Model the fold of this input.
Amino acid sequence: VFNVTSSEASLLQGKHVPIPGKSHTGSSDPYCIVKIDNEPIIRTATVWKTLSPFWGEEYKVHLPPTFHSVSFYVMDEDALSRDDVIGKVCLTRDVLVEHPKGYSGWLHLKEIDPDEEVQGEIHLQMEIVQGQGPPKLRCTVLEARDLARKDRNGASDPFVRVRYNGKTQESSIVKKSCYPRWNETFEFELDESAPGTLCVEAWDWDLVSRNDFLGKVMFNIHGLQAAQREEGWFWLRPDQSKTRMDEGSLGSLQLQVQLRDEMVLPSSHYQPLVQLLCQEVKLSPKGPGSMQLISLIEETTTAECRQEVATNLVKLFLGQGLAKEFLDLLFQLELKRTVEANTLFRSNSLASKSMESFLKVSGMQYLHSVLGPTINRVFEEKKYVELDPSKVEIKDVGCSGLHRIQTESEVMEQSAQTLQSYLGGLLSAISRSVKMCPAVIRATFRQLFKRVQEHFPENKHQNLKFIAVTSFLCLRFFSPAIMAPKLFHLREKHADARTSRTLLLLAKAVQNVGNMDTLASRAKEAWMEPLQPMVQQGVAQLKDFIAKLIDIEEKEELDLQRALSLQALPVKEGPLFILKTKGKGPLLPSFKKLHVSLSSEALSFAKTPSSKKMSFITLANIRAAEKVEEKSFGNSHVMQIIYTSEAGQCETAYLQCKCMNELNQWLSALRKVCLNNQGMLGSYHPGIFRGDKWSCCHQREKTSRKAWLGRSGTGHFPGGGEGEPRGARLRGPKDRTASEGRQPGRWPPSLPTRSLRCSRTREH
Done:
């Protein structure tokens, strides 16, 4: 039995960053980059023209047990030049361990010192050499990997400076490489009276400006005298000798970060619990006595973890084909303790949280098809919309020379017409979406409708069964997605202030329709009255939609599910730029935009989502999915898929994503579906073979791939000194689960590492 320990950090939100303006406008366009041990894994959306941005973005990443720190960089986006770095916040592993329930609060941004922004490792061999004369200290600098890129060409020109006892020696310069090899030896006469320390520094050579610091390693000679010889890969450390600006002068960042260390056993260990839960759900129609376990879970679950428990239970029962039955059981428990009809499903109970998670897991594609056109229209038109008299802004209208000021009533009338147009289009899209809604969602709403109708049969509660459905569909699914489309992947970026206000008013209107236009909802915001005719019309449309939505028979539900099970449903799909190159052919000059679809069988390519597949890569033939260095193509966010063709040749496809987050999502999806592939590579080149050499390490043998294919049962990778190499278990953007455990004597087949690269390899 192999137990795999996984560390997980949940990066919740950053907001209100009072930062000094970086442009002539006195404001900034801030966004955040999150790094795990110097590797960027997350980029938030940009919030335009503000000194107090709100992001509200939540991420979960899997970390290696040996990670050192999580850093948050606040950047100012610049369309004409490089983005400015405003400041950063760094949380070390020790700080997070001290707060087991999570770290939450405001943290001052600190100044960025280039000498502290180091990364990479260096491979050293040190020994005390005894001879006829005085003993000598011998230091052999073999190679380095993953060094920081200091030059405009996306690389560095590294050399090493070795210091001991007041004497300094330097290595040769390796041009344009972040993976240099030196294999140079330096000797110093050992001072046995005061051994002191040995300092090995890596520098980037510059012809015109001063050399850039790349990091250093310090060694205590006392320890070396005892061991006589030491060899390994060592982290390059920053130079922290400089003074900083006063804390707080760059602003602050509010974060909620939680680190969790979980022990995950093989799936067989959980089968008794899964069987017990499934048995209770299957027996639930036989009476309340069969609901003891789920009732116990609900009673003992705290408000802080209820959402997570609900999400995990929903995924478990979806996998077992019992999601509808599980939710039906929760509906019965909720109705059993509900006395006042107007409080039904209004609390954050396990039933409410589970249904909310169920819709997000099962209905995101449906959500996009219903809301997408209207949301895109709001973003594209960017109209000024306001109904609240206390917030109306009066502005000039008309052409040059004929300016006049719009009255408040004119602005509000125009706003009402615009909102009615958006709301009408959205309600029409919902009404037409019955067939697009997944069968399992329709069947679940049918059960909810039926249970509420049975529990509240009185005539005065005739609308309650409809409100029960809309309380989830409109209030907990459609409305939140309208207010924050970025968080539901409807848009790539957050809306500006004007668009956000329009979306908020539209979401309020959808909520009023979902509440069936009750008197209570009208009384809250009387200034929404201009939309009342459209809201009343929407209530009738929504009732008719729900009646059709729940009109699904058991046989129809089973037929739809059976048809879906026979299809190779896409795990992930979307437009990407692709460049294919065969093992012996030249590298093609440009990327071509195609629609890429990843299923459980193959990675396929087509011109459009509906067109015929042009080509595909069988998943079983994929040998690696990894990032590509930015300098390789001069483009960011490129990944490589190394695979074996039908003829047995090793080929590579390069895919360019539009952002860092999309790149990490694709890598995560690819690695999960290829988890059990045989012959996954033990290491890889992060660059490309251009001309007569690799761009990353300057090796001239293209056939050197054979040296890093890895042998049966053992992977090849550059050594990691003591224990695992840095990054060898890095799970951040790859989003692996801890259940991807090891087998005896070998690494996981899809090793998520920045270390497994083109450096000299050794057996693990």
Remarks:
- The mean pLDDT is 78.
- The chain has four domains: 2-113+248-263, 121-235, 266-285+301-396+406-564, 569-694.
